[in-house]
Amino acid sequence: MNKPFEIFEEYRKAADFKSALGKRGLYEQNRINERFYIGDQWYGAKCGNDRPLVRHNIIKRIGDYKMSQILNSPLSVTFSAEGIPNSGSAKDERIREINTAMSALGNYYSVTAERVGLTSLYASALRNAYISGTGILYTYWNGDIKTGLYADRESRIPINGDISCEVLSVENVYFGDPYISDIQQQPYIIIASCRETEAVLREARRHGADISELRAIEDDSDDGKVTVFTKLFKEYKAGGGYTIKSVKVTENATVRKEFGTGLSLYPLAVFSWEKRGGLAYGESEITYLIPNQIAINRMITASVWSAMTTGMPMMVINGDTVPDGITNEPGQIIKVYGSSEDVNGAVKYVAPPDFSRNFEQSLQALIDNTLTQSGANEVALGDSRADNATALITMQNAAIMPLQIVKNRFYSFAEDISRIWADFWIACYGKRGIKIKDSDGVKYFAFDSERLRGLIINAKIEVGTGTVYSERECVSTLLNLFEKGIINKTQFLERLPDGIVPDRQGLLRDESEEERDESV
């Protein structure tokens, strides 16, 4: 069931489901949420251009605060093989080999994260999740990546290919069963992408497409672009288990026939900002903040308009005594014709209605309550004052506790990514040196994926500290330890946060030279 028209029908049914999801459908709701997040909050409101339309964008402030809190703490990963103890006797060479490889992969994860720009990808996926409810990171094999490694000692056979990552919009990902929230349990997943027709034709030729297929791809093209549907599905083995296979098609043509990826996991990690009961698609917080945002904008606009009409009220002019008309320019000389009574009645200001004294209080209460109910009160945002850094940190930690549930979902998302990467390393790397950075510098570990094939690789995320005052507290703690003689100058300098002291390495060299001179 992987013919182009069959896959297109599966895509169409999944798109219809999205269109019916919620009150407005997933696509329309996402467009509304995006506009409100970026500040285009008066779109479609027929208010004219006669008055200023004020915005007080609390939606963006809440979202930016929460996303920064989630990304505030650095993450690292440790890998382990299920069924393999952490240590073994000297005779357990196989156990020591596996544990050594797991340790190397943990270090290599950081190298790969730096190469693919994982921090930036996290931020993009989080933004998508806040706006649409779902953030998706797709990992794929890119055979064009040059590694700088060679399969022979003479450096004649280059080793090319490595993993690449891309953040996908939930609008372009279609799950085979939208009622299954566990992505790895999906029967299939379809990814839709709009690509240049020429690039798709080159890929089709590279994979042996005939003339009829190439013509069909061109027929599906519109303005030099064509929509490609990448379907990922499971092929079950006779002895149990399954492997992930893939096929690429357009609406009426096959770009690449079914091929095995070698993976045991779908290469997509999904993060839901809020879980929908029994659905694969998440829910956005923005959807339910929009009514409050509209009310706040309207109230502030009314307040500004009231201030303007009070400061520059409308005038009633007697056209018989003031024939030339007047403007609101200050210091204007008005020519009035007639008697003194006519002069007194020439111009009259229209007093605007009194503005409610409680209006400003109601407006501020609405803003404060919206922020508080969203878990972004003044303490969490850092607007409140505290006597010292420790007191502020304590208050902020208490304020952000409700966000821990979202953080935990994000950490599970990060663990899913690390497991997918390990799946790629074992399925696609073969024999190659993997780059490792540690305190001793850069080195390469001789990795052989065949030696790890068949193992169940587990990943555990370790969360570092990341408070606003972490560097200040770190320096203060180090100073106390140094003053008490618990650590020496070298230990103090080595443990200082990066960027605190200029040319720290130069100071360390000077200190080591002084120690050598004293020893002589």
Describe the protein.
The protein is built from 16 helices and 14 strands. It is of the alpha+beta class. It has a 5-stranded antiparallel sheet, with helices on both faces. A 3-stranded antiparallel sheet has the order 3-2-9. The protein has a two-stranded antiparallel sheet with strand order 1-14. The longest helix is centred in the middle third of the chain and has 26 residues, at 286-311. The protein is extended and about 115 Å long. The model has no long low-confidence stretch (mean pLDDT 85).
Structural class comes to alpha+beta
Distance from N terminus to C terminus (CA atoms, Å) equals 80 Å
Strand content: 15-25%
Shape: extended
Order of helices and strands: HHHEHHEEEEHHEEEEHEHEHHHHEEEHHH
Poorly predicted tracts of residues = none
Task: Please give the largest β-sheet.
Answer: 5 strands, antiparallel
* Percentage of residues assigned to helices: 40-55%
Mean pLDDT: 85
- Radius of gyration equals 32 Å
- If strands are numbered along the chain, what order do they take across the biggest sheet? 4-5-6-7-8
The number of distinct β-strands equals 14
Number of helices: 16
